[in-house]
Structures are given as structure tokens and as C-alpha cells.
Amino acid sequence: MMLVCAPLMAESSAYWVPIDNERFTIDASYPVESYSVINGAYVLATGAEIKHMSVMNSDVDVERGTRIFGGMQIGGKGRLTVSDSSITNERAIGLTLHNGFRAYITDSVLAGHGAGLSVAFSYAYLENVKVFGAGGVFDHWSGWGIGVLGGEASISRGSHITGDEYAIYMTHPETAVGVNYNYGKVQVNNSTLESFKGAAIRVEGRDGIAHKADIDISAGSILLSGNGNLLETFNQSTTHFTVDNSRLTGNLVADETSTLNVTLQNNAQLTGNIINGNRLVLASGGYWQMTGENSLKTLNMDGGAVGFGDGAFKTLSLNELSGHGNFAMRVDLDHGIGDLLNVNGQANGQFGLRVQNTGHEVVSPDLQPLRVVHTEGGSAQFNLIGDRVDLGVYSYGLEQQGNDWFIVGQDKTISPSTGSALALFNAAPVVWMGELSTLRSRMGEVRGTGLGGGWMRAYGNRFEASTSNGIDYRHKQQGFSLGADVPVQLGNGQLSLGVLAGHSQSDLDLSRGSNGTIDSVYVGTYGTWLSEQGYYLDAVLKLNRLRNKAKVAMSDNTRAKGDYDNTAVGASLEFGRQIRLADGWFVEPYTQLAMVDVQGEGYRMDNGLRADNSHTRSVLAKAGASLGRDIALKDGGVLQPYVRLAAAQEFSRNNEVKVNDRHFDNDLSGSRVEVGAGVSVSLSERLQLHADFDYMNGKRVEQPWGANVGLRFAF
């Protein structure tokens, strides 16, 4: 049955059309402005302009650009679907649902005066919907995006809910409807809640009746507030607030009459304070970043973490702590202050303390123990993440004293940042020496034609080293050299004068993932004298430019880095004689003296640590001999295998390094033994190939292997 109460006249401004148990379609061609849909009717509105619609116990579909600009009121049993449409009201609530109605709204706009949407003991599902509520005509309707009055709202897929006062307001209807009229639920998935003046979400009881609310925020949702509070739960309300895989910034607030339970899970993050919180659960990567002093009754951790934040030092007070998780804290040992975890009751579980590492120095090395955790009992155990906390030059430990835990300085060790600086300064002379080697490993067997020539060599070395301060590191070097020389005839021998250039890359691996690199570019000149009696004298002068970088994994697994450039200049003088024996055998004793001065340089790491030295010097003397044989080949070439044994002595002792104005000595001195083997082969009068392999072991340094291959072409 359809009853039209007035003639359909274009000049008329309003029509009222009751629809009872009918199926009815409203489109753009139909001039009726207001509708009352009752008693099981079905209405399809498509592309229409409608002033107002009220629905009771009926189903309505609103789609295809329909515009309802005087609001919509719906109640009773029934279903509303809205897609690609708008429902607005400049004088009252845009869309009102009550008494058990279900609404499914997608890709649409809702706006009203007082609220954009009111859900009273009903269910609303919103997907990609824009909702806005401006200040209303009633005092307690001060502009909500959505009012959830004992109902349920599910908000998803990029929806944006905006309110002058609150994005979402949750309470119960003024009159009881149904069994759970004082319970509401809101789910927000991949959407935004925004309020201009107040909290993003407000939950409260009224008229002396408590209210209960479950709120789930998930999938990267965003909450924005006008007063800094994301959630307010007041007036005898109980709120369960769960954040899943979303990052929120703002406070969660409860008054003294209410209960607030919070869960952060699946890498959810809250930056803000929890005021008058009852229980906080941090699970599966949930993280709470405090911005001020906080107190909670219960904190349960299941793989989550709490950060005390920057600024002033803070205290987190708890009545109960349980589970397993981490606390990120800061301390100032010089002034005896820092963040404090204060459990005024039982603490049970396993917890890590990530005390912020820094390169800035502790002024007083004899510091007093600083308390970072207090409990009143329980079986809880606390440990430092990384076992130590780096504070400038040294790393410090954690010690339990009764029910308290303290940062202590009695067993301090050199910090990773300091260790990397000492290793870089220590390794520079080894880089220079590794590029140099001996005449034979640089040019092979150079006796013979009396011709000038060009040569090149590629080399690699590995060192297991430690500084005199006990810093162990692995040093890998690889590089190449090339050069050319011309002969100068002398009466009793031959003199070759030449130039060389090359590049090497050194990688330093320290403990716990710290590393450094030394990039070296060098040029040099050399002269080699060969006598007819088998004597030789080889002199090399070499200048290097070194680019040094440090990347440090501090004890708390945070990273720091620094870099500097410097130069090195050094010389080598090698003297020996090849003594010919029977059947092509020969023995070649030699001595070598090499000296290098590495320019000092200061640098600052980005964690605040400062390191510098005036210079690093190395004076290395060697004495040894090679034993080999010339083997003639059928094609006229000569194969020359050899073995080598040498002893070396490093004389440099005082190489001062300053780290944060604390003095260290990189003492390089010590004895070494070197063993080597190689082969050179003359393929023709002009072309020669050679390869060498070395092992060395000595005080604070071992070379498990060194390899060198090269060629020389005479012209």
C-alpha cells in the first residue's frame, strides 16, 4: 500500500509519503522530498535528492549518488545499506540508528549538527566513510563524529571520523534498551579518528550508571586529538583499549572512578602517558614510550617493551610486574640520577634493561652505584641488554643488591667505541707494511737482462691482531701495486730507478659487529742496485693517503660511526746477497729496515666520543734468508722455487692515543717469526711471473696467510 498525502506539484516545498509493506524506488525524477518508511517496507533510493527520511522496521538501500540533506532516523528491526551517497543535516544528527537496527555504509559521507552518526543499541559498519559532527543544539551533544550509545560501530578501510569535541563518544542511552544497554564496542581498522577540541574517544557513564566499552584500534589506524588525549574514560566507566599494529601519539586518561585496561600488541606503539591506568599488557612487540612520570597498578609483558623517553629522567611506578620484556632507560652517572623502575609490590619474570649508550664521557671514573630498579620482592631477574652499558670510554655492568639493581663501575671495561678507535690507529702501520713487502715479492727475480721494465702485483693478507690494551680484531687487506723503472749502467753492476703507485683496502672486524675500514692510496719511488757479485740494495720511499671509517655496534646494539683522513710517509732499505751453490741451488740472506710515520688525526663519532693521536710510528727490522734453486725448462725458461725464513723486531713503543681526554698507549713493540715460500718463472727474456705465500706469528699479531702474485715485463 502506498499513500500520497498531497498532490505531486512541482511548486510545493514538502511532501510526506508513508510507505507501508511496499517495495518502492526513489530516483532523481521523483519530486517527493520527505519519506516515512514503516512496517516491513523496502525502499531503494538511487540518485535522488531527499530532504528527510525516517525508517521503522524496514529495509532501505541508498546508493548511486543519493543525497539526503535533512538527516535520516532509523529504528527497530531492519537493515540499511548506503553506498556512494551522502546523509547530512545542518540542524540535527545526520544519521540516527536505534533499537537494534543494522547499517552497512560504504564510500559515503555522513555529517550532522551534534553528531554525524548516532548508534543507539544498534550496529553500524563503515567502510571508506567520511563522518563529521559539529557542535549541537543540546549541551551534552557538543560535536561528535559518532555517538555509540550502547551499540557497536566497526570502522574500516580508510574511513575518517571527525568531531568538534570527540571523534567518538561512547555512553549508554538515556533510557534502558535491552540487556546490555550500558555496553558499547568500537573497532577501528586502517582508519583515522580526529577531534578538534577534545579527546579522540570519550567513554563515560551517566546518571549514576556505569558504562563498559571495548575499543580495538588496528591495521595502522591514526588517532588525533585536540587536547592531547587519545582516550578519556570517566564517570564510573570501564574501558578495554586494545591497539594492534598501529602507532599512536597522545595520552590515555581515566578518572579516579573508572577502570582503564590497555593492550599493545603486534608491534603497536603508544607514545604518551597512561594516567590512572589499571592494567597494561605489552605483547608481541608492543611498545610504550612514556613522556612523563607514570603509575600503573599492573604491567604484564609478553615480549613487549617500555621506553622512558627523552628529556627529564622519569620514574615508572607499578604495584605488580610480571612476564618478560625490556625497559629502555637513561642514566647520568656523574650526577647520580637516572630513570627508575619502581615496583611497590611483587615482580616476577625476566626483564632486560636497555640503558642508553653514549660516547660522552663520565667525568668521574670512581662513580657510586646508581639504582635503576627497585622491587619489594618476587623472583624477577634483570639484566643489561648486551651485558654492558657504554658511557664514554668505558662500559659498565649491572649488579643486584637485595631487591634492587644498580649500575656499577668497579668492573668497567673499554667500550666498543673506544676499541674501534684504538684498532684504527693501531692498524695503520700494518697497512703500510703490508703494501711494501720485500724486493722479491714486489718484483720477483730481477737479475738478468739489464733491461728496464714495468711490473704489477696483486696481494692479500689476513692478520689476527690485538692492541696493547687488549682489543682484539681481524684485519683483512687486499690491493695492487704497479710500477716502472729504467736501468742505469754502473761499472760494477746495474742500478734501476723507478716509480710505483697502488691502492689497498683493509677491513677490520671487531667484536659484537663493530668494524672499520682503511682505504689507502699510495705513490712512491724506488732504486735497486744489483752487483755482479750477487749483492743487492733496494730502497723505497712511499707516501700514503688513508681514509679511515669506524662503524660501532655499541653494547645496547645501537650503531655509531665516525671517520677521518690522514697521511703516512715511510721508507724501506733492504740489503742482501745471492750466493750461488752447486746444481743451481742458491741461498740469499738479507736484512731489511722499514720505518713509517702515520700522521695523527682527531675525529668525533656521532655518539659523542672523541679520539685523536699526534702520530703513530713503526720501526721494523728483519733478518732472514731464502733458499732456492734455478731449474731450466725445455723451452729455455727458468723456474725458480724458494722458501724463506726470517725474524723481525718491532721497536715502536710509545704511540699515545687520547679518547675523551683519557690516555692510552698503542705499544706496537714485539718479536715476530716469518715463514714464506714462492716461485718465479721466466717465460721469456722479457716476461716473468712470480707468486709468494707467507705466514707470520708474533707478539699481539699473527698473519695466518699472505699471498702475492705478480708479473714483470722488460722493455
Shape: elongated
Low-confidence stretches: 1-13
Label the structural class. mainly beta
End-to-end C-alpha gap: 114 Å
Number of helices: 2
| Rg for CA atoms | 41 Å
**Biggest β-sheet strands, sense, barrel:** 24 strands, mixed
Indicate the proportion of strand residues. Answer: over 45%
Mean pLDDT: 89
> Portion of residues in helices?
under 10%
How would you classify the quaternary structure?
A: single chain
Total count of strands: 64
What does this protein look like?
There is one protein chain. By secondary structure, the protein is mainly β. Helix content is 4%, strand content 63%. The chain has a 24-stranded mixed sheet that branches. A twelve-stranded parallel sheet has the order 1-3-6-9-12-15-18-21-24-27-30-33, with no helix packed on it. Strands 47-48-49-50-51-52-54-57-59-62-63-64 form a twelve-stranded antiparallel barrel. A hairpin with a 2-residue loop joins β48 and β49. The longest helix has 21 residues, at 416-436. The radius of gyration is 41 Å and the shape is elongated.
Give the structure's gist in a few sentences.
Helix content is 4%, strand content 63%. The chain is mainly beta and 715 residues long.
Describe the SSE topology.
Elements: E1 16-20, E2 23-27, E3 34-38, E4 42-46, E5 49-50, E6 52-56, E7 59-63, E8 67-68, E9 72-75, E10 79-83, E11 86-89, E12 95-98, E13 102-106, E14 109-113, E15 115-120, E16 123-127, E17 130-134, E18 144-149, E19 152-156, E20 160-163, E21 166-171, E22 183-189, E23 192-195, E24 201-204, E25 211-218, E26 222-224, E27 229-234, E28 237-244, E29 247-249, E30 251-254, E31 259-265, E32 269-271, E33 274-275, E34 277-283, E35 287-289, E36 294-307, E37 315-329, E38 331-332, E39 337-338, E40 340-343, E41 347-355, E42 370-374, E43 381-384, E44 389-391, E45 394-401, E46 404-414, H1 416-436, H2 439-443, E47 453-466, E48 472-490, E49 493-509, E50 515-531, E51 535-553, E52 559-577, E53 579-580, E54 585-599, E55 602-604, E56 610-612, E57 615-629, E58 631-632, E59 638-650, E60 656-659, E61 662-665, E62 670-682, E63 687-698, E64 701-714
Parallel strand pairs: 1-3, 2-4, 3-6, 4-7, 5-8, 6-9, 7-10, 8-11, 9-12, 10-13, 11-14, 12-15, 13-16, 14-17, 15-18, 16-19, 17-20, 18-21, 19-22, 20-23, 21-24, 22-25, 23-26, 24-27, 25-28, 27-30, 28-31, 29-32, 30-33, 31-34, 32-35, 34-36, 35-36, 36-37, 37-40, 37-41, 40-42, 41-43
Antiparallel strand pairs: 38-39, 42-46, 44-45, 45-46, 47-48, 47-64, 48-49, 49-50, 50-51, 51-52, 52-54, 53-54, 54-57, 55-56, 56-60, 57-59, 58-59, 59-62, 60-61, 62-63, 63-64
